[in-house]
Amino acid sequence: KLHRGKTIATEHRRSVSPPSEAAAEVSKIQGFRAMAGILAWFWNERFWLPHNVTWADLKNTDESTFPQAEDLYLACPLAFCVFMVRLVFERFIARPCALALKIQANGPQKAQANAILEKVFTAITKHPDELRLEGLSKQLDWDVRTIQRWFRQRRNQEKPSTLTRFCESMWRFTFYLYIFTYGVRYLKKVLTVDLHYYYILELSFYLSLFFTQFTDIKRKDFLLMFMHHVATISLISFSYVNNMARVGTLTMCLHDAADVLLEAAKMANYAKCQRLCNVLFVMFALVFISSRLGLYPVWVLNSTLFESWEIVGPYPSWWVFNALLGLLQALHTFWSYLIVKIACRAISRGKVSKDDRSDIESSSDEEDVPPPAQKHHTNGTNGAPGTNGYLSVPSCHDDH
């Protein structure tokens, strides 16, 4: 009777409540139902799991432990923490190490101030064509090659300094080394608290890389790295939800092993230890090609494509998971081609001069040209007095 009385009182209050409040309450209920419908659709068992498996079968018991999808939510706040740790590490550890190695903090040489060229650079184009160059040459009474040099210097001006690059590489080297040694220890174990921590930390790191990619050093392979981060985040999540933790752990360890050597080679290059850089790069090339063109397809792809087909058969998320693994293998193949290209060029030049894979900025696609003979004028136009805007300083070569 008491429950019935409360129900009647509630219905009475609703009947006398203003229409706006009733409509808001109905809208709120509909929103909850829509959200519940979306979650039910997203976590559909027939998409994520094999035919005879349900979410209830993957609940933790006293005898066995399984990955829980809700654990992945922890990666979002942890990614922010990883980013904050990176800032502290680069400021108080990496930067002092760089200064101890006498790595300069100054960036590329700045272009001479010129209002007309700056307006063209910021509002129209950073790579003017011949017609625009000729127009600017007539307008400023500058030589065309001088204007080309100005635009090249202005593009290089936006590059980070060598010290910034060193700090970024040292952070990644430290994290890859730590997470690789941690993951190898639990490679053959079933899901434990340690492996759970390993998965969440890897996912958090790549989430932080996904967002900081837009603020870090811009490289020529920006789009490829963007695809790589999306594929990596998706693969980590899929392998965890689908209880493929062993495959996921092996994949992450194979990737981290080569990345440690790559970042170490970059650090040696920035510190101008060329011999060490060459040795580390050769080691990186061998590990990268053997692990990502050898071990990865033989162990990982063979297991997920053929062995899992025989054991559980294909299902919707199985196709998505293997498609992402195939995308990763395509990126491996392309990057291996670039590594071989760098190695051939290093043999011909005697050193590793550039890293086409991930260490060339997007603006460094031109070779500098020797400055032409300059004419001196007395009617300066937005330039230095007595030079009529001609750049009187030597041009800055691209620093890779």
What does this structure look like?
It is found in: Endoplasmic reticulum membrane; Nucleus. Residues 117-161 form the Homeobox domain. Residues 150-348 form the TLC domain. It is a multi-pass membrane protein. InterPro entries: HD, Homeodomain-like_sf, Lag1/Lac1-like, TLC-dom. The protein has helices at residues 2-16, 19-42, 45-48, 75-100, 115-123, 130-140, 144-157, 162-185, 193-212, 222-241, 245-270, 274-311, 316-349. Helix content is 66%, strand content 0%. With 400 residues, the chain is mainly α. The chain contains 13 helices and no strands. The model is unreliable at 1-9 and 356-400 (pLDDT under 50). Helix 8 (162-185) runs antiparallel to helix 11, helix 9 (193-212) packs across helix 11 (245-270) and helix 12 runs antiparallel to helix 13.
**Count of DSSP helices?**
13
Q: Report the biggest beta sheet as strand number plus sense, adding barrel if it closes.
A: none
**Number of E-state strands:** 0
In helices, the fraction of residues equals 55-70%
* Amount of beta strand: under 5%
**Basic shape:** globular
What does the average pLDDT come to?
A: 80
Helix/strand structural class:
mainly alpha
The radius of gyration computed from the alpha-carbon positions, rounded to a whole number of angstroms, is 29 Å
The topology string of helices and strands comes to HHHHHHHHHHHHH
| Poorly predicted spans | 1-9, 356-400
Oligomeric nature of the chains = single chain
Give the distance, in angstroms, between the N- and C-terminal Cα atoms.
81 Å
